[in-house]
Amino acid sequence: MERASVGTEARVAARRGFFPRRTIVLVGLMGAGKTNIGRRLASRLNLPFFDSDTEIETAAGETIEEIFKQRGEAAFREGERRVIARLLQGSVHVLATGGGAFIDPATRSLIARRAVSVWLRADLDTLFQRVLRRDNRPLLKAGQPRAILADLIERRYPIYAEADLIVDSGEGSPELTVRRVLAALAACPLAQEPPPRLEEEGFEEEE
Description:
The protein is an alpha/beta fold. It has one domain: 3-Layer(aba) Sandwich (Rossmann fold). 53% of the residues lie in helices and 11% in strands. The chain has helices at 2-15, 34-45, 52-60, 64-71, 73-87, 105-114, 124-131, 145-160, 174-186, 198-201; strands spanning 23-27, 49-51, 94-96, 115-121, 165-168.
């Protein structure tokens, strides 16, 4: 029933010419599928796609793992905060963020003002199976990955729950998750509201 309902809602949204008027920010733990879903969603909406981790690496000239190792998590979070703030000053796009980005109060507040946030929620078993496919997750190298994920779920899920929309990404294909996100966005009035003007937000022109 859910597959049919979500698919129908997404098709109705497409027929109505749904198009967001503010950036869509995907949040959630590592393994939730933010980059995969984000790319597909951006393609569906004909919007640019950005991954905050990739943008951080480009700006720093280092990988995320190197930043953590050489300069520590605090330096990474500061860079992450600046990169996301810069991206949210741009035109409407789809943005996949790192797992800790939405946990930062300043970043979370900025996202709330300038974007519509979507938490891609998945259970521990799903996340664990997905993160095993990559070995470049700095936070998982400090102990047993499954135990670390469980701890992150306990601490971060209550904060992710503050997102404007919650979409489950555990079951079914990525395409199904994309349809769920589209349906949720089409039913969200905030997605149709333009963000405040940059001058109103107090942004200064970057040098």
